[in-house]
Structures are given as structure tokens and as C-alpha cells.
Amino acid sequence: MDYQGIIEDIIKEIQPFTSHGKVADYIPEMAKVDPSKFGITIDVIDEGIYSAGDAREKFSIQSVSKVFSLTIAHSLVGESIWERVKVEPSGSPFNSLVQLEYENGIPRNPFINAGAIVIADIMLSNLPDSKASFIEFVEQISGISGLAYNENVAKSEMDSGFRNIALAYFLKSYGNLDNDVMEVLDLYFHMCALEMTCEELAKAFLFYAKHGSSIKFDTIKVTPSQVKRTNALMQTCGFYDESGEFTFTVGLPGKSGVGGGVAAIYPQRYSVAVWGPKLNKKGNSVLGMKALELLTSKSEMSIF
Ligand code: GLU
User: Fold this and answer.
1) According to a count of CB atoms within 10 Å of the terminal CB, is the N or C end of the chain lower?
2) Residue 154, CA atoms < 13 Å, CB-side half-sphere
3) Which residues are catalytic?
4) Three-class SS of 87-137
5) How close is the Cα of 103 to the center of ligand 1, in Å?
């Protein structure tokens, strides 16, 4: 398969869509991102890595981080995790308060904000230094070093993330947060503010594409079965309330973030990461969605 040729064609074919969407300016620091960026990397198992565009530029991975934090929390507490967060698609915006009230403080899934805040709470209760362990985990699975949080983005969210702060207090009122609310949010915002390039993100997601591999360091021991469950959740819940649309048009398990990044996997074959900062109304990268639709169409490979 000529992956390099395919991604170069994709860059040409997405050009008519570059004017669509807008950057996530509800986080003031993120409003500064150059909206014209676009990068793509495919990491093919036992073959190699193919990149085009701005694939070596760092961006804020935002909710793509929820895949990593879920993997860590699941490894720490095992199946009891599902008592505090469910595994159903939300069908609601990622920061919905009303759904949390209807469901008595148990978030629908770990990839909406409320669910990821509970996951951050589990990490804080079980790790001596959650922020350091989170970076160490991502470095271990990707084989890269020197990853860092963008402190300005984390602070910007702490200063303006009133809805997330409300969600966290709401969870606390239902007894679904054990730690101090602000400490939980500090960890949550930092994980969202991790910066990675498309190449780095694709390398990290190769771990999920190969879902047979195990990892073990300190108290974090991930089993293939746990990775399988994370992949299933990416398929059903990875794209806010557009997860059905993504499954329909692209057909890969993946996760998006409001930084415009999307990471996805073709199990046992490849991982792919794309970045285009302008988002559609549901919060997904316009160019990212289009590029991945073109990728699965052009490569004529589908998991379905
Ligand atoms: N840090 C963002 C927030 O909590 C993450 C949202 C996202 O990427 O979905 O609003």
C-alpha cells in the first residue's frame, strides 16, 4: 500500500474544506493557535511511519488524553472502575451538566468531561505523583521522551473552565469524587494540556492498534483485555455526540480533542493521527474527520 502517496493526495483533497469550522476559543489560550495548520501521520505495524504537512508540530492533545488516563485508571483499580463510570455513548455534548443529574452523578462514559474527571480522581487516589506518571505512561507506550504539559493552556482552563468546575462539584455532591475538587481539576486540565505532535501521537496509539502487547511499570500494568475495552469505547464514544457519524463515515476506533487532534487505529494494522485546529459544531476537527474518511476510502480497508 502506498501510504505516503495516499496522505499526500489527502492533503490536496481537503483543501476545499480549509475554510470550514473554527478553533476552540472557549479556552482563551487555545484561541491563539494558527487555524491553517494540518498534519497527518500513519504508523504501520512492522512497516514504518508516514507523515505529511505539519506532522512534527506540537499541539494540545486535549480530550485525546482521555484514552491514556482511562488506560491508567483501569489498570490501577480493575473492573471496579465501571461502578463509577459507565460505558454508553452519551448522545449529549461532552460537557453536559443535565445528563449527569439525570443519571445521579455516574457519568455515561470515561470520554465525556464528567467521566474523565472521575478518572482523574481515581488516578489521584492511587498514584503518588499522577501528573508525572501520566507523562511517563505516554512516553513508555510511545517510546519517546521529553513530553511536557503546556502550563499556559492548563492555567487558561483553570481560569476559565467554569463548566468543568461545575461538573466536578456536581460529581462531588453525588459522592463520586474522593479528592479535593481543585486538585482533581488541576490534574484533569494538565492531562488535556499535554502537547504532542501527530508523529508522537501515532506512535502512542500503535500500542492500542497492537492490542496484544502488555505494559508494566511501577503500579501500572496494562493487560491486552484492558486495551481491548479501551478500543471498544473509542469506537462507541470517541467523538462526542458524533461517534455514530464517525463510525459511519470513517469506521475506525478513535478519539478526538478540541485542540483539533484525532487519533485512531486500525487494529493489528496501523495507528493514525491527524491535526487540524478548526472544529465543527460538535467539537471535532473538520479536516481531521475529512482526512480520515478519505484515508479509509482510498485504502479500501475497513474493519466492518
Ligand atoms: N479540556 C477540554 C475541556 O475540558 C477538553 C475538551 C475536549 O477536548 O473534548 O473542555
Assistant:
1) C
2) 19
3) 63, 66, 188, 240, 258
4) CCCCCCCCCCCHHHHHCCCCCCCCCCHHHHHHHHHHHHHHCCCHHHHHHHH
5) 21
CB 147 within 8 A of CB 135: yes
199: enclosing H helix or E strand: helix 198-209
Separation between Cα atoms, residue 92 and residue 99, nearest integer Å: 8
Which of 95, 111, 284 has most ligand 1 atoms within 8 Å of CB, for mutation? 95
Main-chain dihedrals φ then ψ at residue 251, nearest 5 degrees: 80, 35
Residue-wise pLDDT tens digits, 141-189: 999 999 999 999 999 999 999 999 999 999 999 999 999 999 999 999 9
> Which residue's alpha carbon is at the smallest distance from atom 2 of ligand 1?
62
The H or E element that residue 248 is part of is helix 243-249
Predicted model pTM: 0.97
**CATH fold of 3-298:** Beta-lactamase (3.40.710)
Separation between Cα atoms, residue 68 and residue 50, nearest integer Å: 23
Separation between Cα atoms, residue 170 and residue 78, nearest integer Å: 25
Centre of ligand 1 to C-alpha 47, Å, is: 33
Please tell me the distance from the alpha carbon of residue 41 to that of residue 267, in angstroms, as a whole number: 16
| Of residues 34, 189, 220, the one with CA closest to residue 120 | 189
Q: Which residue's entry shows cell 482533581?
A: 184
Cα-trace Rg, the chain:
18
- Dist. CA 8 → ligand 1 center (Å): 30
